[in-house]
């Protein structure tokens, strides 16, 4: 006759085996549920983007601001780098690292979450180290657009759309990085008489900016060097 102790021992062993099997199956189930064996491929950047975001692309600018007089100015550098591209729903979004620097010293850093579509350049999330998407993308620069066309843009103020005008009749623009033809421009008007002008060379990107308070130039941003990698 089998002892009670031996019977209980066998029952405990069987229970342990069942628990171990259940844990293994749970891990397998959760793993299969959380890892897509065939994740969708991130598409290439669109052709003729107003600011092409290919991983590794960089744009470096010199920004100058004037204070009370033309002789009273400050200057610093800005560098935008495309860190990575990923899918958000059906949209291709890129992480862009922006740093502000003077000589070799970086004094501020930001992360943008932007992306190009056939309707223009959009922001998909606020400036933040982590991606927390807006309810819907916010248009920064419409492209392509009709000459003189106006649209609501979030470029000047991320949380407040404002009217912006598009121009496709720009002359050749020369900046330290070179001479650019077939450029497009955007005008942001600030009543009663202030203006910000943004200039792009499609398939190269952002190249120049001017800000005026009345008729006085108070800020410029000029492209000094850039890196464009193949799509």
Would you write up a description of this structure?
The protein has two domains: 1-39; 58-227, YmcC-like fold, CATH 2.40.360.20. A twelve-stranded antiparallel β-sheet has the order 6-5-4-3-2-1-14-13-12-11-8-7, with no helix packed on it. Strands 9-10 form a two-stranded antiparallel sheet. The radius of gyration is 27 Å and the shape is globular. The chain is built from one helix and 14 strands; from the N terminus they run αββββββββββββββ. It is 13% helix and 49% strand. By secondary structure, it is mainly beta.
Features:
231 residues, mainly beta, 2 domains, twelve-stranded antiparallel beta sheet, two-stranded antiparallel ribbon
Task: Quickly describe the structure.
The chain has two domains: 1-39; 58-227, YmcC-like fold (Beta Barrel).
Ends distance = 78 Å
In total, the number of domains comes to 2
In CATH's first tier, which class of the largest domain applies? Mainly Beta
Task: Describe the global form.
Answer: globular
Structural class: mainly beta
Q: Helix count?
A: 1
Overall pLDDT level: 87
Give me the CATH architecture of the largest domain, please: Beta Barrel
Give me the secondary-structure topology:
Layout: H1 4-34, E1 58-66, E2 73-88, E3 91-102, E4 105-117, E5 120-125, E6 138-142, E7 150-153, E8 162-167, E9 173-175, E10 178-180, E11 184-190, E12 194-201, E13 205-213, E14 216-227
Antiparallel strand pairs: 1-2, 1-14, 2-3, 3-4, 4-5, 5-6, 7-8, 8-11, 9-10, 11-12, 12-13, 13-14
